[in-house]
Amino acid sequence: MPQKRLFCFGFGYTAEFLAYTLRNIEKDEWHIAGTTRSHEKQEAMMALGIDAQLFDNDTALSDVHAALGDATHVLVSTPPDADGDIVFRLHAEDIMRAKRMKWFGYLSTIGVYGDRGGGSVDENSELQPTSIRGTRRVRAEKQWMSLFYQYNIPLHIFRLAGIYGPGRSALDSVRAGIARRIYKEGHAFNRVHVEDIVQTLIHSIHKPNPGRWYDVADDTPAASHEVIEYACELLGKPVPPMVNYEDANLTPMTQSFYSENKRVRNERIKEELSIKLKYPSFREGIKACLEQEEAYWKRLGRLGDVFAASET
After folding, report:
1. How many structural domains is the chain composed of?
2. Residue 147 forms part of a structural domain
3. Among 49, 122, 196, 293, which one is least packed by beta carbons within 10 Å?
């Protein structure tokens, strides 16, 4: 019987990669469970050997003991709402009572730093969110930190840059014919390949330091149009014309991403967790996505159909 039991609130893209990697490198040591909002995804998760429970804003876990009673590791990746983190709201007391828990991870975002006009930030920078999403993440982080300070839960916060990987990269938008090259002077996005997120989580699991937070980003912030150009080159597709940001007629959501410009430093994960990035820039990462896509969709099976239609 596995001695390590991971429970994931929100079994999305990153959690699936983490579960797959743990099972692949540590064989039968791990029991994996998680939550989803749909019956369809619940069935697909069960088919992969993942114990699945339904959970959303209106539905607390039906069997808290089965989920958390024996959990040694807990990961929360569900997005917060206006009141903060839903897992905190519904299950903070249950998490405080999880006696076997050795590690608790919360996936936040670099949006907590807000716009810095192209300047650099790291874990010691003041939190200055400039978007609704960033403000909600700050509130959620504070909620979880309150449990660390008051009840000593083994909390670790990971502030993630924009996530990409097989099945979720610029390659997909280029193939779909919806990729756009948008130019905004001096603007750069921070990104991180999902495998580098996963190795950071695993290194933290093996070297826990409760109460710590980590920025998880690659070494090379880059403009979005550079990434699209490279994806077109790899696929042999024509490069779409460049459009100035002011003329792009972007959706409010896309505009909000362009409204923040910063460069995230990642020294802490390298120094404290001994991380050597597999994909230090989008070039290595997107090339790997192209090579890994077929194997990725094959391993997911039915779950792949759910992920393909989902943003989580």
Report:
1. 1
2. yes
3. 49
Amino acid present at 311: E
Instruction: Dump pLDDT digits (tens) for 30-62.
Output: 999 999 999 999 999 999 899 999 998 778 898
**Domain span holding position 92:** 4-165+192-220+264-280+292-308
Q: Which residues pair with 84 in a beta bridge?
A: 81
Q: In angstroms, what CA-CA distances link 54 with 32, 76, 88, 141?
A: 15, 15, 16, 24
CATH number where 35 lies: 3.40.50.720
Residues linked to residue 9 through DSSP beta bridges, in sequence order? 76
Asked if residue 235 belongs to a domain, the reply is: no
Residue 129: how many CB atoms within 10 A of its CB?
19
Residue 141 located in a structural domain: yes
Angle at CA of residue 250, ends 246 and 252, nearest 5°: 115
At 157, give phi and psi (nearest 5°): -110, 130
- DSSP letter at 312? -
Encode 22-50: b = buried (16+ Cβ within 10 Å), e = exposed. bbeeeeeebbbbbbbbeeebbebbeebeb
| Predicted TM-score (pTM) of this structure | 0.95
Helices 224-235, 282-300: inter-axial angle, 10-degree rounding = 60
pLDDT in tens, 173-227: 999 999 999 999 999 999 999 999 999 999 999 999 999 999 999 999 999 999 9
pLDDT tens by residue, 138-179? 999 999 999 999 999 999 999 999 999 999 999 999 999 999
In a domain, 50, yes or no: yes
Dig out the tokens for 12 from the structure.
Answer: 């999305």
Burial 144-169 (b: 16+ CB within 10 A, else e): bbebbeeeebbbbbbbbbebbbbbbb
